[in-house]
Amino acid sequence: MRLAHALAATTLTLTLAACGGSEDASEADAVADTRSVEHALGTTEVPADPQKVVVLDTGELDAMLALGVKPVGAVEIDSANEYLEYLADDIEGIEDVGAINEPDLEAIAALQPDLILTNTVRHEDLYDQLSQIAPTVMAPDLGVAWKDSLALYAEAVGRSDEAATMLADYEERAAEVGAAVDADTVGLVRFTGDAIRLYSDKSFPGVVLTDMGKSVPEAAAGQDTFVELSPESVDDADADAVLLATSAVAEDADVAAVTGGPVWQQLGAVQQDRVLEIGDDLVSGINILAAGELLDAIEEGLGG
Fold first, then answer.
1. Using an 8 Å Cβ cutoff, are 245 and 178 in contact?
2. pTM of the model
3. Which among 151, 189, 190, 200 could disulfide-bond with 220, CB atoms 3.0 to 4.6 Å apart, if both were Cys?
4. 57 or 31, greater pLDDT
5. Which pLDDT tens digit goes with each residue over 231-240?
């Protein structure tokens, strides 16, 4: 009887231990299936290998496609009600989830995403609602911080090494293009429909120009993203070369009135035929694919 009791007790102990081990293994597996990502609004547990990513700004879309992660959903650009032109070949099959300024939360939820990527500039007020739909990672800024944003989004999808390699290649390319462009200062002027903007070194295109070893016009240096110009003050954009972008909502007549006016015509870059028109989406892309496209355009239009 004592032996029977001893065997029974031993069996019970082993069974409990086995059950406990199974629970511990399940917990370990659950931890292994997620990754803690620190971002602008805290720390979020994200899937180790997210399969259904939704992006809510242009930089996030650019970054994911660069990293080989095709989102299931993305927002459109408000002003043009479309996606970025330079990404046209890569966006087939991505579902529309509203516009940048007004994401459609129901459309996002219907996609059952396992990760949402955006930034506080656009959607800080929506963080709690988005987090109820799926783990949400938010970058703290736009424009000047695009490289940090790429690193954050890459971490969220488990592709940090790939992002680091891309950034190193980009910086080498930027230096090469900069050396090929005979200009110390480069201004970027953008017509937006209701304003004329001169972009600063603290903007997405400004970072690209800085990486090329170029300076922006003095009037924009150190300013927050851009300064607004009037038709009478566009001479503040004067530089050795000028990049000219026009948004989809800008009126051709308004652009022509300024660029055909006496102040614009007196710019040194205009007189030296050093004005290069670029696609507006290269200003709006705000990440590494747009940066590469911008370098290509500058090299082709102003290099050598």
1. no
2. 0.87
3. 200
4. 57
5. 999 999 999 9
CB 189 within 8 A of CB 229: yes
Joined together, the tokens standing for residue 36 give: 């803690």
The string over 29-47, giving b where at least 16 C-beta atoms fall within 10 Å of a residue's C-beta and e elsewhere, is eeeeeebebebbbeebebb
User: Residue 232: what residue type?
Assistant: E
pLDDT digits (tens, 9 = 90+) for 98-115: 999 999 999 999 999 999
Place of tokens 């939820």: 109
CB distance 117 to 72 below 8 Å: no
Whether pLDDT at 272 is above 50: yes
Q: Is 288 exposed, middle or buried (0-12, 13-18, 19+ CB in 10 A)?
A: buried
Q: What's the Cα-to-Cα distance from 261 to each of 173, 230, 257, 264, 267, rounded to whole Å?
A: 36, 12, 6, 6, 11
CA separation for the pair 162, 106 (Å, rounded): 33
